[in-house]
Amino acid sequence: MNRTLVNVLLLFVLLASVGLVLASRRDPATTNYEFIPEMAHSPRYNAFSPNPHLAGGMTLQPPVPGTIPRGNLPLHYQATPEDSLRAGEELKNPFSYDDGRALDRGMFVYVNFCQTCHGPLGLGDGTVTQRGFPAPLSLIAPHAVGMKDGQMFHIVSYGQKNMASYAAQVSREDRWKVVLYVRSLQKQAAEAAKQAGTPPAAPQATTASAQAGVKQ
User: Fold this and answer.
1) Whole-structure pTM value
2) DSSP-derived secondary structure letter, 8
3) Are the beta carbons of 180 and 93 closer than 8 angstroms?
4) CA distance 149 to 165
5) Neighbour-count burial of 110, counting CB atoms closer than 10 A to its CB (0-12 exposed, 13-18 middle, 19+ buried)
6) If we measure between CA atoms, which residue out of 186, 106, 196 comes closest to residue 140?
7) What is the pLDDT of residue 211?
8) Which residues neighbour 102 within 8 Å (Cβ) at sequence distance 6 or greater?
9) Cβ neighbours for 105, distance < 8 A, ≥ 6 positions apart
């Protein structure tokens, strides 16, 4: 059998195969015959739907006792001044001061969650203090400058006096980043005061309650 005849036969087989495919699949939108379709179309259950195959008859299962979600290690502190000081000694900011991305994120968090009370420069003159809310102490005053990062992180996490906890609104990483940004505000205030030859700005009594001597 010469090569030309072989090529002709192969071409005939190819055309016949294409013809059979087209004849058996007139609608291109339909799928071919599936073997073991369960592999491609396995039954699914919504998270809160009943499930006869799992414990308790529910699809969503509780975590195994003693396990910790990834990236969510527990904080073994209470919302007390004593634990705030202890956090200052034990906790360290995982982000460095030369981390530009962390600092930018900290500024974003500060503007959205902190500026309304603490003001754009940390002086405690945010917009809510102009409507009667007690003005917080200045973040650039010596008492705040002397705070350790861990103590400041504890205050953001657990709250302090008039300030509520922001643990539910701000992630743990973002809480550290906003501490980083507060440090940058303190640094800017110190540099400005040095150039002007004056001490850092003190908190201003911008509300009636602050003028009346309301303590924070």
Assistant:
1) 0.65
2) H
3) yes
4) 16
5) buried
6) 186
7) 34
8) 95, 96, 176, 177, 180
9) 174, 177
The residue type of 147 is M
What is d(CA 170, CA 19) in angstroms, rounded to the nearest whole number? Answer: 63
The whole-angstrom distance between residue 115's C-alpha and the CA centroid of its chain comes to 18
Question: Among candidates 32, 31, 52, which has minimal Cα distance to 43?
Answer: 52
Nearest Cα residue to 114 out of 129, 94, 101: 129
**Can you say whether the dihedral through the CA atoms of 163, 168, 169, 174 is positive or negative?**
positive
Q: Which amino acid is at 198?
A: T
- Which whole-number Å values give the CA distances from 177 to 1, 28, 93, 185, in the listed order? 80, 55, 8, 13
- Tokens representing residue 85 in the block: 């000081």
Give all domains of the chain, ordered by start, each with its CATH number: 81-194 (1.10.760.10)
The residue whose two tokens read 């919302």 is 79
Residues contacting residue 20 through CB under 8 Å, at least 6 positions apart = none
Report the chain's mean pLDDT, rounded to a whole number. 85
Sign of CA dihedral 73, 76, 80, 84: negative
Q: CA angle 14-16-19, nearest 5°? A: 110
Q: Which residues contact 161 (CB under 8 A, 6 or more apart)?
A: 216
Per-residue pLDDT band for 96 (boundaries 50, 70, 90) equals very high
